[in-house]
Prior knowledge:
The structure is a homodimer.
Chain A: H1 2-7, H2 18-37, E1 41-45, E2 49-51, E3 57-59, E4 63-68, E5 76-82, E6 102-104, E7 107-109, H3 113-132, E8 140-146, H4 156-163, E9 173-176, E10 188-193, E11 195-204, E12 210-211, H5 212-215, H6 222-231, H7 254-261, H8 267-274, H9 284-292, E13 296-303, E14 314-315, E15 318-327, H10 333-350, E16 356-365, E17 368-369, H11 375-388, E18 393-397, H12 402-410, E19 414-417, E20 433-435, H13 436-456
Parallel strand pairs in A: 5-8, 5-9, 9-19, 10-18
Antiparallel strand pairs in A: 1-4, 2-3, 4-8, 6-7, 7-20, 10-17, 11-15, 11-16, 12-14, 13-15
Helix pairs in contact in A: 3-13, 11-13
Amino acid sequence: MTLKEWVAIESDSVQPVPRFRQELFRMMAVAADTLQRLGAHVTSVDMGSQQLPDGQSLPIPPVILAELGNDPTKGTVCFYGHLDVQPADQGNGWLTDPYVLTEVDGKLYGRGATDNKGPVLAWINAVSAFRALEQDLPVNIKFIIEGMEEAGSVALEELVEKEKNRFFSGVDYIVISDNLWISQRKPAITYGTRGNSYFMVEVKCRDQDFHSGTFGGILHEPMADLVALLGSLVDSSGHILVPGIYDEVAPLTEEEINTYKAIHLDLEEYRNSSRVEKFLFDTKEEILMHLWRYPSLSIHGIEGAFDEPGAKTVIPGQVIGKFSIRLVPHMNVSVVEKQVTRHLEDVFSKRNSSNKMVVSMTLGLHPWIANINDTQYLAAKRAIRTVFGTEPDMIRDGSTIPIAKMFQEIVHKSVVLIPLGAVDDGEHSQNEKINRWNYIEGTKLFAAFFLEMAQLH
Amino acid sequence: MTLKEWVAIESDSVQPVPRFRQELFRMMAVAADTLQRLGAHVTSVDMGSQQLPDGQSLPIPPVILAELGNDPTKGTVCFYGHLDVQPADQGNGWLTDPYVLTEVDGKLYGRGATDNKGPVLAWINAVSAFRALEQDLPVNIKFIIEGMEEAGSVALEELVEKEKNRFFSGVDYIVISDNLWISQRKPAITYGTRGNSYFMVEVKCRDQDFHSGTFGGILHEPMADLVALLGSLVDSSGHILVPGIYDEVAPLTEEEINTYKAIHLDLEEYRNSSRVEKFLFDTKEEILMHLWRYPSLSIHGIEGAFDEPGAKTVIPGQVIGKFSIRLVPHMNVSVVEKQVTRHLEDVFSKRNSSNKMVVSMTLGLHPWIANINDTQYLAAKRAIRTVFGTEPDMIRDGSTIPIAKMFQEIVHKSVVLIPLGAVDDGEHSQNEKINRWNYIEGTKLFAAFFLEMAQLH
């Protein structure tokens, strides 16, 4: 089974180490080979290399551009996917080896199973089905597949810009399948995603650690500064405390509220499948709005402090706090960068600390929103009715899929997100999985979508 | 050179993993062998095993009890030392391999070089010198050497209690050399140490992490709770905010202030050697008092959050914050435990978080203070005059050497701390070292001390 082979490749793009980069190159080569065997015309575009903040230089895995069919009477659908994954550390909560696809009760566990190797293969499987039946493809198909999505799609924008009038010139529609449903069984179509701005705040006394017995009591300790800085960002109700941060958030209309009311979301089931006792909000509408149309701030962790089991009496000499703000229409990445930096500088200056603080935004990704009356939205709805016998939930996604916004802005083509995975797939967390049922029905859905696109185009 | 061989053994007692435990057992066996070859009568006491919070059980390395000489007309001095070390991670700031003793400009770099393998060997070398010269030892010598000091001297107290009327019955004085001078060149004698209380505060939503895109905005995020809890502990001037924490701190007398004034401490040199731009206090007296006679609170780090380089958009599902409070006379460990727990419960309850919080004190060590007019204090002063040609600084230590307090309370014998290492040795931090000069003069000092003890006893 191909998904098993693909999951076995440790294509982690987040940890900037040579071993994982090699795995990424291997992943892209395997995918290019699969597409070639399908009869596609495949180009692997050299993406050069990446300069890291520490001076290290790492090669960027190639982007695959592939084409299958070139009939001018047919519509052309371009599928975007990524084959890199989030870090996965066996032992840290994983019940199975994250890089060995393991089926338990109809669930296929493995890093990348749902984000995004499974959906990429479902699309390939749908194309293969037409090939196997010796049927003509109802649409021309293009693929753009990258290996740096989890690290911010490094250098991809430049490539899309360059290919705007070449590879993308014949493309009518762009499909992405890189998010999840909001229920376990009901399919969905996604018309908007949040952006993201990722911040690092470094506090440094010196580059060496201290012993808390020898120095505790006389130092401006970097961890005390950092904890105060991180503690100034968000209150216990989830409200972000950075001044001005809500200024550009789109005003809420009555019409928009109605779209949330129409959505099926069983809060009880959602809580159970998430294994969360209590959310910040009690109604379906509030929860959806705080996932989709309001910004959120999460503190991810601290680099440079003591992070292992046991008790170490260390005063870390320099520490880096990491947090991010999910952005919504019509927040602006560079305005947010300024607001956060100014706020942290304010808080820090009030502490009169002798340490050095440096704030940097290492990733800035725009939010995206689409027109849900475009042809391919209607085609996707009809395909879902055919395969699942139900209307889809029309949803947004709280995650960032910056490529959607990018395609819209650069290529000026309609973008739709057709997720395949269930709400409890655990993308980015331990024990990521895709259900066997979702994987197979998803393949059928893409095949039906090709047929509907041919009719509507 | 024996110090090189001893440093090469990765006897890390802090990280509770089998590999390091095996190294600890090897370390104790090597030391027992060295003492046996010196002619000592050596017993390696089986210490049983240790139950960890996660249910794991690990064996505790044996404690060495050794005796050399049994002349009832002579005094008996017992030397305490430990051969376990703090964790050391090459790459994380170490310029040389921490487990390869490396000499650079007269400095011997390596984990354990100054804490505490070097001083233990200096004592052994002093004894060897008398042996090599075929001279009678001026005093009877006993050794108690353990391998769990950095992990809180697990099970040692029970052993000392048990040996009170056996191994310790003939002991007149106890010497410990497990701390540092407060200057680069001037020796010191230590008559007090701070205690320590190490806390873990766990905040849990669920045992799996979340993706910040999928859940950011609707969760009581454990990191937000934890950062608020840690931020409530100490202000930017180093003042501890736990109610009642200063209640039992010994009142400051005029006489005590005078002892600080008499101490030689070049603040400029101290700052330079520490590579700290600015301390919390500007005078010698304030700095000494906040290191020795006032409590301090340090935040060490967070377990379970994202701690690696790069950017990961994770919401950690459960996190453990680690901090400790250094205790001074006459603070009480169990009172402090109650105060801290109550304070954190207060702060947490005000957040109305749906997460679970658990506070635990995993280590509680009493402060210690001695009578500086005891015989062995006078002998140590005279030996220092002989070897170094100067009066020692009479100091306390901000670090915890719980064994000092324990010997005083259980064995009822006078305890003295005679440090050998310079202020910039970097115990517990990266690039720990002992100066070759300190190591050799320290050996002479111990030999001179034996002779002075024989005279004064």
